[in-house]
Amino acid sequence: MTDDEQFVEFANAHAERLRTTAFMLCRDWHLAQDLTQNALTKLFLSWRRAAQSDNLMAYAQKILLRVFLDHRRRRSSSESATEVLLEPAYRESHELRLTMMDALGCLPERDRAIVILRYFEDYSVDRVADVLELPVSVVKSQTRRSLAKLRELLAEEQLALFG
Amino acid sequence: MTEDLRALMRAELNSERPPPLGDVVGAAVRDGRRIRRRRRRLGTLGAGVAGLVAVVLFGGIAAHSEPRRPVVADPGGAQPALPATAVSPSVSALARAAQKSPGSVPVAPTPPATTAPERSLAVHSGIERAAGPRKKATTGAMLHLLTELLPPGKTSHAAVAADEDLHVQMYLDRGDGPGMLRLTMGQLPAGGTRGGTASVSIIPVPDNCRQSYVVISRWPDGTSVQIDVASCLAGTGRVDPPGREVLTPDEAAAIAADPRWGLVMDADLVDRGDKEFGKVPVFAS
């Protein structure tokens, strides 16, 4: 089997999962699709090196996260993190329901990535640190802060709904 | 909290209705190959430039460092060249700069429940038995073959993509107004031979008028043909004038499964196509 065939086999098997991770990060299926394609293109270009890694999926996710963070960085001059999470149309359509996804969207990109890898992908702290190239201590402290923030946001929303 | 968090994330994700994944892998392979080709070209160009720079630089250094004296031919004198590493950073930087962000895979928004479901079929299209020589496919050949395969009607607005992709556009009017079609051809790595049966997928995409539905045919050798049947005409992207779906899914499937499609096509067909459609406008994707 040639390198290209191996890549296609891997990509076909894992593209959906990568896109799901991308969606968790950006909450936009269209953007998730683009991020997945960009990540797969980069993976294709570095396939020989990637194929030697112990965990190819983790390698692919590392690329995906970099693509996501790069994308956000490029757009950061025109956007800023905001406490008002939802676009009006989205908010109306969901009748004031703040979802976990929305709450995640309130976290800074890197913290969101930590939470998603840790609790959605079930990665260990060490593995998250490796994928995001962060010290383990930073992953731990940011995880604590992010969880506190999520707890706070979701509690507020419950009060708004049932108060 | 953490278990709740995990459960909430999974529950919310389960309630999502993601659009079809589309040909994201094929698009990544095509983009990757294009970038590779550019890198190779730039590498070759860079090596040439490096050689030239080395000669000029060496000549300059020699001219300025040597004491002025009458020039005497030295047939045995070797010309030291600059080591390749001296120029490679700029070359690789150039290559990086030249990398184009991969284009978007046509995104297929979530179809509503009333939409016809996606379906797949195997189309026995037969094997092309061209007696004559064969040539690398061109957009001209694609347009030419497309016009041969389309049902009767008036064709217009033939156009090609701006990049080097085998991606073409054609309007067809069967008497009740024009409709737009776009066709892409590519090849994924595969170990098989061409064979006579294509796997054809028909994917409805209701919220994207330029791809009202997409028909993708694939052969065992990796050859892939995608036809986008639009319900609008090409406009600015934000505002596209209305058009008609000029092919039924089955008609589009029959066209996509024609055995004459391929990265190498009948030479006569390529020549005729280039003659007829060699100079057509570029469409904005």
UniProtKB/TrEMBL annotation, chain A:
Residues 100-150 form the RNA polymerase sigma factor 70 region 4 type domain. It holds the Pfam family Sigma70_r2. The keyword Transcription regulation applies. Residues 12-76 form the RNA polymerase sigma-70 region domain. Keywords: DNA-binding, Sigma factor, Transcription, Transcription regulation. InterPro entries: RNA_pol_sigma-70-like, RNA_pol_sigma-70_dom, RNA_pol_sigma70_r2, RNA_pol_sigma70_r4_t2, RNA_pol_sigma_r2, RNA_pol_sigma_r3/r4-like, WH-like_DNA-bd_sf. CDD domains: Sigma70_r4. It comes from the Bacteria. PANTHER family: ECF RNA POLYMERASE SIGMA FACTOR SIGM, RNA POLYMERASE ECF-TYPE SIGMA FACTO. Belongs to the sigma-70 factor family. ECF subfamily. This is SigE family RNA polymerase sigma factor.
From TrEMBL, chain B:
Residues 101-120 are annotated as: Disordered. The chain crosses the membrane at residues 42-63. The keyword Membrane applies. The keyword Transmembrane applies. Keywords: Membrane, Transmembrane, Transmembrane helix. This is Uncharacterized protein. The lineage of its organism: Bacteria, Bacillati, Actinomycetota, Actinomycetes, Micromonosporales.
